[in-house]
């Protein structure tokens, strides 16, 4: 819906600028204005006047249409223009007032949003408010037609808020959606479910802290809009990857009380959520989408950036076609300095004003493409982020691929960044799912070599960029794709609810249904699925690198086979907190794996595993001797022992991994002899010096846990080097060696 500028000849008073209220044309103030900072900024000692600066290189004359104290609307021109920035002093624009931008030479009088707006609100009409209490409208994206920018006040009582600043090596990330995490939680009051305040509720915080995660990574909470094709299907953009404002929180995730009070209350609810998470020791990472906007294609109405400077803000293939490296139709042009500035200013705002601890960048290569649309490690955006005193200390995580030429860049981001490791995901799924399906069908599986590299933190992937395994964000699942439970229950996607004929979503899932597609009551199949889920979770949490768990995987959440639930603001996407015994077993296993990981790391030096000298990985076969090249590459060899630790640590860990269809007798390694160098999966040294070898030979092993339930009941049993342990089929068993 296109917004229309107010008509100065109309006589009917209304709160809706689209109803053509009286307009007051105000001359430029005599006060001096400035082209910086962009957006609205207060003037010293002038509560009734603000400086407004807008980068609008495609506009000849820009004005601000805004609410004033008597309830009417005024239009104030931004008379000064410097290097494409229109600026001026606007009087009587109070906190809480709505405002729009207007190209005074636009014959259509289209009202535009300020790219730097700190708050967005849907404009009420004479028929009533944009959303009635009790409706589900607040969970949708904004209806972009009647949206207005709103001036908000940044003041907030943080009451001594302290960022946890968890080191990368101790970080365990939990990816979640504000609505999906809390919508069905029985211990969260109904009025708080699906909201920022609900996420901050003690019941949710207790689950996260008992689970043992250290950071929550939230799917986009920037204000976003629904795409037109979804509205036609009666669906919404649930995930929120369609940004309408890079500085404004999405009002639909706030409580009804905050929405009724306005954008200031919405922002305060976000800040209170962050403070509560910090008080619980949890970092807050935001998933951010700077690669495209909600304005859509050339046939869609201008909403902000296109009306202000289409040729500058967006990358063009030709005068009539946007370049598309995102699949969304309009890639922002990060070869333009002002676009880089927009992203950096937004990031600094969320750190300074909202105290967030990091960001995950959707389709990050689009942000790092030069004037020739080529990804470069030394892109100004990357250089500026690394040098910025506000951004350099926070966690910066790249989704290191887009759909443009040269878009796959896993391992190629510079120091200071971590990458989502799709290679780890694919290897873990292949070993425990695709290979197991092959074995079940009587075919050979794959070799151990790829799994060894993944367990070692994909060192070869990140070495070229000068980074350690801590640059690897290891994942098996994410919001996009099958859940952990669905990986074990479906061979193919089932996205019928999305209204696209099941054509959307990936067909390459590396999943295995264990012989039955979808739900089943067969106990054998259910037990096998549970064991595979535990194996995948153990591989994730016991590997070098930084693990990321998708919310609900710890209790076996299902999306009923939907691997592209972006449009499902329904029970398909919401976590069902009614736990049966299978869910409780998965939750117990996940908690214990995180605890084992934490206890192991606590006994390693601070540099573990950031520098090679601070850690070792020793690989052994079933006979207790170092792995040979033939064993690494032989697809019939599916059993591996990994001893990991540090020369300066006080404990070692031993993983016994059996990826075969049968139990295997494994001789626990006698590490009291010198191990030949260069036989590790990551080509790291595997030898021990004489003193360490002698000490190792005297030590024994204590069984800590196993993904095989009968073996897990033998927890705390002691084993000596050279003892023979029967490794159950398709299992991981963890030993501790003091």
Automatic annotation (TrEMBL):
Q: Report residue spans for region: Disordered.
A: 1-28, 495-520
| Comp. bias (Low complexity) | 1-15
The record places domain Glycosyl hydrolase family 13 catalytic at 171-597
Q: What SMART domains does the entry give?
A: Aamy (SM00642)
Provide ranges: composition bias, Basic and acidic residues. 495-510
Q: Which CDD domains match?
A: AmyAc_Glg_debranch
Task: Output the InterPro entries linked to this UniProt entry.
Answer: GH, GH13_cat_dom, Glycogen_debranch_GlgX, Ig-like_fold, Ig_E-set
First and last residue of the signal peptide: none
Family indicated by similarity: Belongs to the glycosyl hydrolase 13 family.
> Which NCBIfam families does UniProt cross-reference here?
glgX_debranch
What is the protein named?
Glycogen operon protein GlgX homolog
């Amino acid at each position: 819906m296109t917004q229309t500028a107010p008509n100065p000849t109309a006589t009917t008073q209304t709160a809706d600028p689209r109803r053509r209220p009286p307009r007051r044309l105000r001359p430029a103030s005599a006060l001096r204005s400035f082209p910086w900072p962009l957006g609205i900024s207060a003037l010293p000692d002038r509560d009734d006047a603000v400086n407004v600066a807008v980068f609008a290189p495609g506009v000849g004359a820009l004005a601000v249409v805004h609410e004033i104290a008597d309830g009417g609307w005024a239009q104030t021109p931004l008379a000064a223009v410097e290097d494409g920035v229109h600026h001026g002093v606007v009087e009587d624009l109070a906190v809480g007032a709505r405002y729009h931008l207007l190209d005074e030479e636009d014959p259509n009088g289209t009202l535009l949003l300020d790219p730097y707006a700190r708050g967005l609100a849907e404009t009420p009409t004479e028929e009533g408010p944009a959303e009635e209490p009790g409706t589900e409208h607040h969970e949708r994206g904004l209806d972009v037609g009647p949206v207005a920018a709103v001036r908000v006040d940044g003041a907030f009582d943080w009451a001594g808020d302290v960022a946890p600043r968890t080191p990368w090596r101790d970080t365990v990330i939990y990816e979640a959606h504000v609505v999906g995490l809390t919508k069905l939680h029985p211990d969260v009051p109904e009025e708080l479910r699906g909201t920022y305040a609900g996420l901050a509720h003690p019941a949710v915080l207790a689950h996260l802290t008992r689970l043992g995660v250290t950071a929550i990574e939230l799917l986009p909470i920037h204000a976003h809009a629904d795409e037109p094709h979804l509205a036609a299907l009666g669906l919404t953009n649930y995930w929120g990857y369609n940004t309408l404002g890079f500085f404004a929180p999405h009002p639909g995730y706030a409580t009804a009380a905050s929405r009724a009070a306005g954008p200031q209350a919405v922002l305060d609810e976000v800040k209170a959520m962050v403070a509560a998470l910090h008080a619980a020791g949890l970092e807050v990472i935001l998933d951010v989408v700077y690669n495209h906007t909600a304005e859509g294609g050339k046939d869609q109405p201008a909403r902000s950036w296109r009306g202000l400077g289409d040729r500058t803000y967006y990358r063009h293939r030709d005068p009539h076609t946007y370049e598309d490296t995102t699949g969304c139709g309009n890639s922002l042009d990060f070869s333009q300095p002002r676009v880089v500035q927009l992203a950096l200013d937004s990031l600094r705002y969320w750190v300074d004003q909202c105290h967030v601890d990091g960001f995950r960048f959707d389709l990050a290569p689009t942000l790092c493409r030069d004037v020739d649309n080529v990804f470069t490690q030394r892109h100004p955006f990357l250089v500026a982020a690394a040098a910025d005193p506000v951004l350099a200390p926070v966690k910066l995580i790249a989704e290191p691929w887009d759909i443009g030429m040269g878009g796959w860049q896993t391992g190629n981001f510079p120091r200071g960044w971590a990458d989502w490791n799709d290679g780890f995901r694919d290897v873990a799924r292949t070993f425990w799912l695709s290979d197991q399906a092959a074995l079940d069908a009587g075919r050979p599986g794959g070799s151990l070599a790829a799994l060894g590299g993944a367990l070692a933190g994909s060192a070869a992937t990140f070495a070229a960029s000068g980074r350690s395994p801590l640059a690897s964000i290891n994942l098996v699942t994410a919001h996009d794709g099958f859940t952990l439970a669905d990986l074990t229950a479906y061979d193919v996607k089932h996205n019928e609810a999305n209204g696209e004929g099941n054509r959307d979503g990936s067909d390459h899932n590396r999943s295995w249904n264990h012989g039955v597609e979808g739900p089943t009551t067969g106990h054998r199949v259910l037990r096998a699925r549970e064991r595979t889920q535990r194996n995948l979770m153990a591989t994730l949490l016991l590997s070098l690198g930084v693990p990321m768990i998708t919310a609900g995987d710890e209790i076996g959440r299902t999306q009923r086979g939907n691997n592209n639930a972006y449009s499902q603001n329904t029970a398909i996407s919401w976590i069902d907190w009614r736990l049966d015994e299978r869910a409780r077993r998965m939750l117990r296993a996940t908690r214990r794996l995180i605890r084992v990981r934490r206890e192991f790391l606590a006994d390693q030096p601070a540099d573990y595993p950031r520098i090679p000298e601070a850690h070792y990985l020793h690989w052994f076969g079933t006979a207790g001797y170092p792995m040979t090249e033939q064993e690494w590459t032989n697809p019939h060899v599916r059993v591996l022992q990994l001893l990991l630790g540090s020369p300066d640590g006080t404990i070692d860990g031993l993983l016994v991994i059996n990826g075969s269809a049968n139990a295997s007798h494994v001789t626990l390694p006698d590490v009291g002899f010198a191990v030949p160098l260069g036989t590790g999966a990551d080509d790291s040294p595997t030898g021990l010096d004489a003193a360490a070898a002698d000490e190792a030979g005297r030590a024994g092993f204590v069984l800590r846990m196993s993904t095989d339930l009968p073996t897990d009941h033998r927890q705390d049993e002691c084993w000596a080097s050279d003892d023979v342990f029967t490794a159950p089929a398709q299992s991981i068993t963890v030993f501790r060696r003091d």
